[in-house]
Structures are given as C-alpha cells and as structure tokens.
C-alpha cells in the first residue's frame, strides 16, 4: 500500500487541573467518548469514528499543557527504523513498555528539538467506531456535543525551529505542506505524514515545548456553527471563530478547556499529495493566513500556549 | 514521506460521440476547465483544485466508454518498479512515449485482468489550481456548474474478478477498503492507494473492461443538491440521487453524459488508513450498501455500463 | 400587525394502529416531544421550536389516516368570523368545547368540500420551546432524531376540488401560491395563510378526505441527509428522497409511519407575499414539479394515501 | 389572505461616494443585479429572488448613509390608511409622485421620530425573479458573488426611541419580536410586519436618523462562509463574522461598502407569529445577544453608523 511509515497522530496526552470539569468539557461538550481509566487517574477518550482505543488521554495534574503527542506507525519494523533515525539524528530515545498506556503497544519516546515529547508506537488495541464492520450505518446514534470524528493534529510552539523542522522532515519523513515565512525565516511549518494538510504544525517561538492547540475534526461547516453555539451555551471561553483559515483552508473555531488548554474543532477543506506545491504565506499577510475572513490576528492566539 | 508508490488517479480518457455537446456537459454543467486540445481532436480538462494539466481527456469516437485510466506514481523509480511488478504478474506492458498526451510523461500501459487499460506515469505538467502558491485564496472566483474539486475515482465492471483483485492488491499495492460479498464470493472491491475510501473500484461482471462511472469530488452535501438542480435544469439524464452510499458513506448523485458515460459527483465522508478494518456489505443487503436511503438498487445501476 | 385571521396549521390528529411503535417513530426517530396524554389514549406531541402545547395528536385506532387538521386563528373574533364564513359558504359547523383536546380552546369544526375535517381555534396553552424568553440559546440541547422545528403543513387528497379551492380561498382567505394544471383543470393547489409556500395543499382525487402526508420542517438540507440516514438505520419505509421539489423548492424526504401514514421532513427554500405571482406547473411536467431531480413520479406517491 | 397592510421592506436608497466602486461592490461582490438607472444618476438593483424591479437604489452623493427606506403595502387603500395613521400620530406626510423612482408607484413619505425617512407605496413594477412562472427552476444560473435572495431589513440608530417605537407599533402595526432592555429601558427593538424575526430594527441612540446596516438574505450558513471568503478575497472591510446572532438566531457576517455603509448578509433561522412571545435580551448580556459565539461586542458595531 502507498501509506507507509508514520501514519497518523495516534493520541495526545493533555494535563488537566480538574478531571470532572475536564470530562464534562471533552465528553459532554466536545463529544469524545470515554473508553478507559487507569490507576494513575488518567482517563482515555476517543472520537467516535476512530477505531483505536483512545486518541486523547487526560492526565490529572497541577498545571495544563501537553505531556506528549504520539504517532502510530504502520509496522513494528517502522518503529525500529524510526528509533534508529531519531538516534542517528542525535536525539536520545527511550522505550516505554507496552501497557503503560492501557491498550497501547511499546512506545519509542524522544524529545524533539522544539522541546515536545513524542512517542511512536506500532500497536494499539482497536475497539471499533461503534459500528459493525458488516453493513455499517454511516454513523452511530447517540453522539454528543460537537460530534468530532477524530483527533486530527496538534499545533505546537517551540524553539530550535530549524533543527526541529529538519528533524521532522528528514528523520521522520514528514512533508512540508504550508508555511509562513518572514523573508528567509520560516515562522510556521505545517507538516503531514499522510494526505492531510497537517498532522502536526510548529510555530517558531522562544519558549520550548509549548502546546498551542489540540484539534478535532468535524464533518462540516454546519458542525462548526453547532460547535460555536455549544461554546456559548456552555459558557466555554471562545478564542475566535467560526472562521476559515487561510493556511489549509480549514473551517474552524478555537476555544479553551477548563485547564486553559486550547482546542480547535474544524472541518477540512484541503488535501495534499507528495507532489503538491508548498503553499507559502508571508509574514506581512499573517492575519489572513491564520484568520482568512478578518485578516487580523487575535492577540491571544499568538501569545497564549499551555 | 508516508505516501509512496501509486499516488492517485491521475486521469481517465473517455470516448464521446459529440465533442461540442460533451464539452457543454463537462465544462458548463459539471464545471471542469479546458486546458488543451491535441491534433487527435482530444480535449484536456481538469477540475479546479487539481495542480496537474488534466484529469479528464475526452476523445472523439463513435462509441462511448473508457479508453484508459491512469495513475500517477511518486517517482520514476516507482514507475519502473511497477512496470516490473506487472510483468512479473504475467501481464504485458508497453511504454507510451512522453507527450503522446500533451504534458504527460512516459506512461507504462497494461490491460488488467478485468479487461481495462491502465497507464502509470511519474510526470505530468503542473499548471496549478488557479490560485497563487503564495497567499492563496481558498478558491478561485468564476467557477462553473457543480464546481468539482478533483477527478476522484472510477468504478469499473469486469470479469476475471479474483485475478484482477490479486493484481491490484499484490502487484500494484492497492488496499481493500470495502467489499460486497455473496457468501464466499466477492462481488465488489473498493480499493485505495491513499487514504481515500476508494481510488478505483471493481464490480464482478461477465463482460470485460466496462466503465460504470467516472467520479468527481464536490466540497459538500450542499454541492450535491446544487448538482441535482443543474441536472434537472439542463435536462441531463439522472440515474439516482441525491443520496448517500452505504459503501464509503459518500453523498452522491449519478447521471449520464451525452454519450451515455455515467458520471458521479459526490462529497466524501470517509477516510482509511492501512490498519482500518475492511468493511463488508453482504449481497442480501446490496441495496442499502449502494443506496443507503432507499435500500433498493436502481435497475440501470447494475445493468448499464459503457 | 400584518398577520391576521388564520395564522398557521396548529395541529393535526393522526390515527395510529400501535401507540408504542408510533411514539418510537415520532419521538425517537423524527424527534417530536411528548407533552401530554389524555383518557382517550391520545398522546400529544410537539416539535421543539413550537410554543404551543402540541402540534401532533396521535389517536389510537384500528385504521390509519387523519382525524382532523386544525388552524390557529389570531383572535376570538377571527374564530367567530370564520365560523360565519363557513356557514355562509353552506357548510355546517359545530363547536367542540375547550379542553376536549387538553390545553386547546374551543374549536369550530367543519368538513371541507374535499372531505377533510378541519378545526379552527383561537387559544392553545403555550408551553414554550424549551428555551427561556430572556436571553435564549438558539436551540435547546438534547434534541432527538431529525430535530424537526415545527409541524408545517398537510398535503391532502380529495374530491370536489373546485368547490374546496373556492372554500379555502374565499371563505378562509387562503392564498394560492403554486398549482399543477392540466389544461384548464387544476390538479393541485398549494395554499398559504402566511408567507410560507404552503400551509395546506390539495390534490384532486376521486376519493374524499384522504391524507397524503403530514410534514415537519427541518433547519437545513444537511438535516434532510440526517433524516435519510435515520430512515435507513431504523428501517423506516422510505418513499423517496432526499430530493428537491419543483413546487415550493422544498428540500425533502418522504417516508411512512408504522401505521402507513406518510410523513415528510423538509427544509424550506421559498416564501411568498400576497403579491407574489402564482407559480404554475403543467401536467406534462408533473414529474419535475414534484421531484425536481428525477423528474419522475414515484408510483406510490400518487397512489397511496391514508 | 392573512397578510395585510405593510408587507415588507420594499427597498432602501443608500448614498454612495463612487458609483463605479459601489456597483462593483453590490453587483460583483454581493451579487445584486442592476435593473435600471435614472437621470439623477441613481442605479437600481435587486436581489435575484425578488419579483419587484428594485430593492436597493444607489444614489451618488458626497456622503454615505441612508436616504430612505420604503415599505410596500398590500393595497392602495392600505396606503391611504397608513397615510392617515401617520398624520393622526402627528407626523407630516408628503406624497411623492409615481415614477420619481422608475417603476415605483406613488409614495407616502414621512420622517419617523427616530429621524429616518420612510416611504410607503402600493405599486412597483414586477420584473420577475429571472425564472418563468410556469415550471420554474429553483434558481437561475449565472448568479454572482454572495447570491443574496432578497433585501431583508435595515437596522437603524436613532433618538426619540420610545416615540418611534410607539409610532411603528401603533401607527404602522409592526409587532415587537425581540428587544434588548436595560432595566426598564428598551435599548433595541426588533420589529416585524410579517413572519420574519425583523423587517426593521431600531437601536436607541443620541443621534437622529442613522443607518447601522442594510441586510440581505442568503440561503444557508454555507453562503455565509462563501460571503466571508469573498470579503477577504476582494479586500472588503469586514466588521465581524461569520457568527450567529443571539437576537433572531441569524447566521451572519458584517462588512462595509466602499462608502462606509455597513452591510450584512445572513441566513435566517427564525420566524414569528402574532402570538409568539417577545424575546428579551438583557443589557448585561448584550454581547451574547448580538454576537452569540464571542459574547463580546465589537467596538465599531456600537459606534459606527452612516
């Protein structure tokens, strides 16, 4: 098959301050589904149309932020190949045993140059998407909230930007799809390991290892309206939207979880192939690049990370 | 990058009886864009969001049907590798020189077991999607008709079904995503070379090398309504729709070009990864598999090909 | 205010064979909300965005069909004025005491020339739409099924077509919005008492007093897709759709309740004023008039009533 | 028929600084259709689905703002009745002869207490909506820009708020649908003469006779996205949106014409009857009342009028 190596963002683990409030946010309001808990107090969630056991892990903590983001690779061989690539790039790796996250196989962990912890893994328990694999309906009844389809990507702020970019594109085989540049300087890089406009994206920052947002896919622009309605009804802090991104053309809305972690839900309007031209947005047009309609950055959008 | 080998359906060449009528159909009503003509009288068309010079070639003929379908591969090496794979499978190949189709590189041609002619190629002139690669708008103004985004896939009827399936999955690395089965017999196979629910699909038939339909992607279900309206306004023969497919969950409408070639325009609602479970539809439920809402096959849908 | 006299279809009372199955259909699948029951075994339902206590009454019976359809008038004076109009037209009226339907004021009942029983009433208990009247959200959480907004209209088959038309337009002040004609003969009349493309519609028939369908409004074409999905998931008999009507431009899907009463859910795409031109559809084009996309009548659509 | 008296906003006449730029804005970008010009240099425009000759008149001027807003009444008798009502309310009227605006009958003109000039008229030439009245398609091909359906309403800022409210509800029979109140003080009144959530709305101001915006109806939320895209592509000053209003639930986007007149395009999600409860928004919640998602007023929204 044509898809090999790193397949997709498999999950992210976010730190949350109050688990009950967080579950209300992620399950009742966004609409993820709880699939398990562990003795560290972590709660495992998935979006309805994901086959794997979880795509979001909430970890009780006294601070917000992202513990790690993990990618699923196609095969065990890919796992060891990328472990070797990472080491050859000069970055230490460590192996996290299977089962440390329930249902997840052995993970190869490393800290990328921009300061974020990433895991790769080849196995995760499949629990299905709530539909049979024989004669399935298009969606299961009883979905909640914004009805997200899948965990889609993270946008991350970090330093060592050039080295991080080199690491992702050379050691991990990601493809640059879109970028923001200021003259010769790349300010943002949107990277895919698939045909999505981004599976992970990085913004140049002086701080290391920051989470800008974790993003979940909706099925349509009408879903973005519904999300905005729920955000207001439930008194969730909105950052901005509904709007469209210039970058990726995504139809989007941004808001915060109760711990201050930023979330996005969006509907996709783009796709890439290895031979797609890189799309470049210029720093003098950064407002339109990010918020296509207003053409103005929201101050918090550039400043607040977790 | 994670996408390698065969990337996508690059184009199909359809035979049409009356070029003027056909261009009115494909350009004014569906909304493809003419990019070139050649001295064989062929006309080259593309959907707006494709980068390559063409994705549909209309060939003047005295009968309808598909001349060939072509896939773009990632690299020249992939081209020779697949040429070798095809030969090793026991199928003859021939090389069509670069430029035989304007803007297209050398092609490797073969007839698959079900009787259809396929080409592989590694190069095609990129003419862009009508938007700059720096600070692009999300879409260009002046789009026409149903505003299709891309040529998406063909559904083909043919014999030697098992061998053809083996050929596509083993020699060409396609992945089975969904199928219709009657007991142990596979009646239909939906195959991807990417993350789409299908890049090509085959239906078991006694006839060899038949085209069921060529399909173009729309951006939303609202686009399917608009397509239905245009079909009626312009007195285009409708087969069925708007409706949803069980298979792939696509939101779809079927109709015929003036030569009797079947077209589909649809909005996608699905995606696959190499580890996605194969979805199986059973023959006793074939109506729902194909037309999810009515759960009844339209007679022509199973019978008419070109 | 500019709206006077007969305001809207206030409710319809349908006969159902099995109340439990019917409630599953109307409440779980379509998504109406039960508001009361009475000692005749009748169950009162409303759509979420209606203020009044009920808009659909299910009556246990051994046959399907419509018991009556009722219109709300603006004032008590209007009620007596229309009672007088009806009598002057030569049709008997009778008064049904307040409370015979729980929460409904006194009704003036009569049988229109086409054989259907209609009630007029000026008062019905308002229970609200589930939202406060101060700082209301745009919709309440917890909606079910197809999430219909309101009971919208009935389409009725009946004889004495000309007299019935004269009665509705002259005695009851309805306005003709659209019609199907065969030469000089009016086959269908769509009638409004408001700015809707129809509040009630009649089809010429040899039978008296038949129900073709009761219709509920959805908020969008995306809702029609969702309705189609639910119809298939829940194994509800579909008649046709999703499609668009030529008449009224409505975006529609038709199906049957467990007793064989036809339902429609639709999204509206039209509006009229008293000075809007009457739109005429010709009998030779009746397929397109009714099902705009296929331009073909479904046989059952013309034949089956309850 | 149930609709009597004042039927709808028939047109507004806006002052524009540069006619060519303005026509590009209103015709190419918003998508109105030019129907005539007169020897005062005024240009007559209509939305596609309006039957009447024009609904927007652009008047060349050296300042922006609204010259007048006009309502169509059902009959000549209504015209004289309202003329009398206005006079009885103590407001002077004057008659503007038929033909002063091309295709428009005699108008009764007056200045309402909040300082805006209004006209009533009973006749306007009908030019149709681009579709035949026999077997019409649901929409005509060749629509441009945002494809607005109709001129829908104006929102006006003015003083003498109480008297103006009394005038509209008592002399002109408008119905209050929604309001913003600060304790006992009404800050905003949304008024209908039909079943729309508003045909005109007033905001309490110290200034007399100001235009806040003229609004055009779109067919769906997807249209609001397309409008936002066009606004950015064409470098039109955006105020805010896409978003939803709390008031009226409208799905909306605001922007400015080249002269500084504010425009709205929106999709409607509400309807009223004479017995609908008045919806009240409290001043402490004014952000959510106006921009439901952000719950924050945009500064310009309250300050800038023309």
Automatic annotation (TrEMBL), chains A, B, C, D:
Pfam families for the chain: Diox-like_N, Glyoxalase
The keyword Iron is annotated on this UniProt entry: yes
InterPro entries: Catechol_2-3_dOase (IPR017624), Glyas_Bleomycin-R_OHBP_Dase (IPR029068), Glyas_Fos-R_dOase_dom (IPR004360), VOC_core (IPR037523), Xdiol_ring_cleave_dOase_1/2 (IPR000486), XylE-like_N (IPR054560)
Record's keyword annotation contains Cell inner membrane: no
GO function term, MF aspect, one: ferrous iron binding
Highest taxon listed in the record's lineage: Bacteria
Cofactor: Fe(2+)
Enzyme class, UniProt record, top EC level: oxidoreductase
Annotated EC: 1.13.11.2
SUPFAM superfamilies reported for this sequence: Glyoxalase/Bleomycin resistance protein/Dihydroxybiphenyl dioxygenase
Catalytic activity: catechol + O2 = (2Z,4E)-2-hydroxy-6-oxohexa-2,4-dienoate + H(+)
Keywords: Aromatic hydrocarbons catabolism, Dioxygenase, Iron, Metal-binding, Oxidoreductase, Repeat
Family to which the UniProt record says this protein belongs: Belongs to the extradiol ring-cleavage dioxygenase family.
Subunit structure: Homotetramer.
Protein name stated in the entry: Metapyrocatechase
Lineage: Bacteria, Pseudomonadati, Pseudomonadota, Gammaproteobacteria, Thiotrichales
């Amino acid at each position: 098959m044509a898809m090999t190596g790193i397949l997709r963002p498999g999950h992210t683990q976010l730190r949350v301050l109050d688990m009950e409030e967080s579950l209300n946010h992620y399950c009742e309001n966004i609409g993820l589904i709880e699939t398990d808990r562990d003795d560290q107090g972590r709660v495992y969630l998935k979006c309805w149309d994901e086959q794997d056991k979880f795509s979001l892990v909430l970890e009780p903590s006294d601070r917000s932020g992202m513990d790690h983001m993990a990618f699923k690779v196609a095969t065990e061989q890919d796992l060891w190949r990328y472990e070797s690539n990472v080491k050859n790039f000069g970055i230490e790796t460590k192996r996290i045993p299977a089962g440390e996250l329930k249902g997840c196989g052995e993970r190869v962990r490393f800290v990328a140059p921009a300061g974020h912890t990433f895991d790769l893994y080849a196995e995760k328990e499949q629990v299905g998407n709530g539909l049979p694999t024989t004669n399935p309906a298009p969606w299961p009844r009883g979905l909640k909230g914004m009805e997200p389809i899948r965990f889609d990507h993270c946008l991350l702020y970090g330093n060592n930007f050039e080295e991080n970019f080199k690491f992702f594109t050379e050691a991990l085989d990601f493809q640059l799809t879109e970028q923001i540049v200021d003259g010769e300087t790349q300010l943002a890089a949107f990277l895919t390991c698939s045909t999505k406009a981004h599976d992970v994206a990085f913004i140049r920052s002086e701080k290391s290892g920051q989470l800008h947002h974790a993003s979940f896919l909706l099925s349509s622009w009408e879903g973005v309206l519904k999300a905005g309605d729920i955000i207001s009804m439930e008194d969730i802090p909105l950052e901005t939207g509904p709007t469209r991104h210039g970058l990726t053309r995504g139809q989007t809305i941004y808001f915060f979880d109760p711990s201050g972690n930023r979330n996005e839900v969006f509907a996709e309007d783009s796709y890439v192939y290895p031979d797609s031209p890189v799309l470049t947005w210029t720093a003098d047009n950064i407002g339109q690049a990010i918020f296509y309609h207003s053409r103005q950055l929201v101050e918090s959008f550039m400043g607040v990370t977790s």
